């Protein structure tokens, strides 16, 4: 196991749903895990991804520095509704941002959302298990 795989093996995993589609997402809920994200990964499981939980709703942005996998990111509001979805290319520092204040971002393999007809306005299920005391 590589150092990167060992680091990610410790992240909690949550099962989410988008309509009938199930997602197993690793949870990045603090600054260091959000900063690491999916860097240095060579692949993702077919329905695997990473859910980023931010400290507060804002116009958050993502980039792909040191990321080998082409990804799509869905930015979500505090209710779990997708605001916008952006496709991101590996090894770029171009910013991909939420169009409205987002509390969450879900990264999946590029095209995952489009292939399943998941669009802005779709609400993800399973987020209630993430409620943290404020």
Question: Topology, please?
Answer:
Blueprint: H1 3-9, E1 13-18, E2 21-28, H2 31-36, E3 48-58, E4 61-62, E5 71-76, E6 82-88, E7 96-97, E8 102-109, H3 112-115
Parallel strand pairs: 2-3
Antiparallel strand pairs: 1-2, 3-8, 4-7, 5-6, 5-8
Please describe what this structure looks like.
This protein has 134 residues and is mainly beta. The chain has a single domain, classed as Protein of unknown function DUF192 (Jelly Rolls). 13% of the residues lie in helices and 37% in strands. The strands form two sheets. It has a six-stranded mixed sheet with strand order 1-2-3-8-5-6. A two-stranded antiparallel sheet has the order 4-7.
Which word captures the global form?
Answer: globular
CATH superfamily: Protein of unknown function DUF192
Alpha carbon gap, first and last residue: 36 Å
Looking at the overall shape, the CATH architecture is: Sandwich
Series of H and E elements: HEEHEEEEEEH
Poorly predicted regions are 1-8
Structural class: mainly beta
Strand count, sense and closure of the main sheet? 6 strands, mixed
Mean model confidence by pLDDT = 90
Overall strand count: 8
- Side by side, the strands of the main sheet go 1-2-3-8-5-6
By CATH reckoning, the class would read Mainly Beta
Number of domains: 1
Please give the share of residues in helix: 10-25%
Tally of individual helices: 3
Question: Over all CA atoms, what is the radius of gyration?
Answer: 14 Å
